[in-house]
Design brief:
Outer membrane efflux proteins (OEP); 2 domains; two-stranded parallel ribbon
Length: about 450
């Protein structure tokens, strides 16, 4: 009973209607790639805090207790003990020593710290641009799969309509055959044709399901969620093709620019090793010594406590390290030259993508116009052939050919629409306007 109730509940789930905007916004909120990109931006704030900590003082507390079961004997002149001309072996120190203290270290001048702070801020900007690029990639994948689902559903609708019409014609032929007015071969040919159409239909049903699952995956939606697409979503709209976009504002290009900036700061941080560094240190300590454990002991117990402190300034001046720093600086210079070439190549690639998208758009519009007229003509031919066949003016072969031509023409038209929509996405992407699909 529980199983039956579960199946009944699932069967009653109303499909969720998805426009392209809904699908994209859902993906931006739920897809793992988009979430991880946002987490990387958040993580960059902590990286900045980590670098900033290098410019702040560090304070640490320490403590230890040492037991010396055998004290070291030191050779001392006997003069100290009233025995001139002799050497006395005397133990120095105490059996127990305990100490506790607080130490402070503050960088006063360290060029690598200042460079690191600038690099950290650039790292945050890099992750922000990279998150934008990731979102655009999510939008592109969702839009492509969305339109593929739509086209396959349109093809399925065509097959369904053809299957219904062919079934009616088959039933008419069967009636004629039963009354001795049609040949058995005609009925058999219609049954074979109907079986072939049904096979195509089952293949399309499977293809639609697979494509819908892919769409849900790219959206981050549970695969078992039923969805439906509105009929009005798939339209051909005019697109401005005259203005060439500034490809340097594209996210792909900006990510490389931020990487170039990070490599520049990396080189600066290596050069900073040539600079001297200056730091301040200070410490305050308390030490207890005696013949027994000093903790909680007093002078009356033979344990004596005293404090001491120190303040110092440390100056480090690099002089020579075997040209290691120079080699690393030159490596960083090569990295910068490499990314300069990447920037040139990326800009060329983005310009190419825009021109190709324009060409595909123009070709798709021409193809759509031709296939629309062809599909309309194929529909008229099929209607006339069906009418003529029923009136004995056309052969069964003519009817079957007309049906196949109609299916092919309709599929060609929907394929042309898909090509246009995919090219439209690429054109919007090449103009850096993929985010407009969320509005």
């Amino acid at each position: 009973m529980v199983l039956l109730a579960t199946i009944s509940t699932q069967a009653q789930v109303k499909p969720q209607e998805l426009t392209l905007k809904d699908a994209i916004n859902y993906a931006l909120e739920n897809k793992a790639d988009a979430k991880k990109a946002k987490l990387s931006v958040e993580n960059s704030e902590y990286q900045i805090q980590e670098v900033r900590a290098r410019a702040l003082p560090t304070i640490s507390a320490s403590g230890n207790t040492t037991y010396n079961p055998i004290l070291q004997l030191n050779a001392l002149p006997g003069d100290f003990f009233g025995a001139p001309g002799t050497t006395i072996l005397a133990p120095l120190g105490q059996k127990w020593v305990s100490s506790a203290g607080v130490n402070l270290n503050q960088a006063i001048f360290d060029m690598s710290v200042f460079t690191g702070l600038k690099a950290a801020r650039s790292t945050r900007e890099f992750y922000q641009v990279n998150a934008q690029l990731t979102e655009e990639q999510v939008i592109e994948r969702v839009a492509n799969n969305y339109y593929q689902v739509y086209v396959q559903r349109q093809q399925l609708a065509i097959i369904d309509s053809t299957y219904r019409n062919t079934t009616k014609v088959r039933d008419i032929i069967k009636g004629q055959f039963d009354n001795g007015l049609a040949r058995k071969i005609d009925l058999d040919r219609m049954n074979v044709n109907l079986s072939n159409i049904n096979t195509q239909r089952q293949q399309l049903i499977n293809a639609v399901q697979l494509q819908e699952n892919a769409l849900k995956f790219y959206m981050g939606m549970p695969i078992e969620t039923p969805i439906t697409l509105p009929e009005t979503e798939f339209t051909v709209t005019p697109i401005a093709l005259n203005d060439s976009p500034d490809t340097t504002i594209r996210s792909e290009y900006q990510v490389l620019k931020k990487q170039e900036q990070l490599l520049f700061y990396q080189k600066k941080s290596i050069i900073a090793e040539y600079y001297p560094s200056l730091s301040l240190t200070a410490g305050y300590n308390y030490i207890g010594q005696g013949s027994q454990l000093p903790l909680f002991a007093k002078p009356s117990d033979g344990v004596y406590w005293s404090d001491y402190s120190s303040i110092g300034v440390n100056l480090k001046v690099p002089i020579f390290n075997g040209f290691g720093t120079r080699s690393r600086v030159r490596q960083a210079t090569i990295d910068l030259k490499n990314i300069e070439e990447d920037l040139k190549d990326t800009k060329l690639s983005l310009d190419l993508a825009f021109e190709n998208a324009k060409t595909q758009i123009n070709n798709s519009i021409i193809t759509i116009d031709n296939q629309r007229e062809n599909a309309k003509l194929a529909q008229e031919v099929l209607d006339n052939t069906q009418n003529n066949y029923q009136n004995g003016l056309a052969t069964l072969t003519d009817l079957l050919d007309a049906e196949n031509s109609y299916i092919e023409a309709q599929n060609n038209y929907t394929s042309a629409l898909l090509d246009f929509k995919l090219a439209e996405i690429q054109l919007i992407k090449s103009k850096g306007e993929l985010r407009t699909l969320t509005n």
